[in-house]
Amino acid sequence: MRRITLMQYLIELERQKDWINADLRLLIEVVSRACKAISIAIGKGELAGMLGGAGSQNIQGEAQKKLDVISNEILLEANEWGGHLAAMASEEMDHPHQIPHRFPRGEYLLLFDPLDGSSNIDVNISVGTIFSVLRCPEGVTEPDDNAFLQPGTAQVCAGYAVYGPSTLLVLTLGHGVACFTLDRETGSFVLTQGEMRIPEDTGEFAINASNMRFWEPPVKRYIDELLAGKSGPRGRDFNMRWVASMVADVHRILTRGGIFMYPRDTKDPSKAGKLRLMYEANPMAFIVEQAGGAATNGRERILGIRPTGLHQRVAVILGSKNEVGRVTGYHAA
Ligand code: AHM
Ligand code: MG
Description:
alpha+beta; D-Maltodextrin-Binding Protein, domain 2; 8-stranded mixed sheet; globular; binds 2,5-anhydro-1,6-di-O-phosphono-D-mannitol
């Protein structure tokens, strides 16, 4: 069987379709190389002193792990010099990172959650990197927070890497979703699934049930119905999974279907949810929709939300279309 590397895949898209230009191709290659470096750092774990806290906090007051900081640095350094970016924004940094003046500027903005699910690092459970690409607005030379505040529909590309038993890279350019597996011997990402599709129906759900007492009535109703199983209104049993790494939970859903929920709750009324719109919800919603699934905040399509803050949080309900439609319908009822 002919093995197609990520580089070949992108060059073919550039040659045969109008989906990608040389700058966007370089951007994706550089991000994939950074993900490879992060994968290697994670793989070394305790042997290289990679585990544990960094002794610092991010803008959201969350304790940073050493690998949060290292992964952020790897992505920044890899992407600074290529000339493909106008600026970068990260879940781990207060404000956008400007491209140093000694390097050329490009037309794209890159956003990332450098290490998603970082509470799982120290216990050797899958974590990942999530990224999103926007165009820099015309005429903007020093992109500030406002330059990034574009709805998810404006994304030109989104992807994630999962650092699990295999390291995978999942990518969309708005024409379906492809999955690449890192060949650790050759160092290349190899195309292993050209067209990921999420089944419209599912028997599996993912939610952190320890928050149940804080949920809003539509979410409570939905989960109660699933838990009632065969003897309840759904007339069948459902299974539950929760990795607590969004990348791993979303990847499972892309592989075999399911619904993922981190809904709005009353735990901290000042926050609309736990997950971040720009670094987590938008890229994942783009990927999930491109694979035939759906993504809402319970009230509207995630990709349609007009962002008001770089680090804003949002409720997330995504995955198999018919289940996402049902919960969203309960919010409207
Ligand atoms: P992080 O970006 O700080 O790692 O937080 C996001 C993670 C998601 O990957 C995951 O779905 C969620 O937080 C888990 O939250 P909880 O610990 O409340 O179950
Ligand atoms: Mg995260």
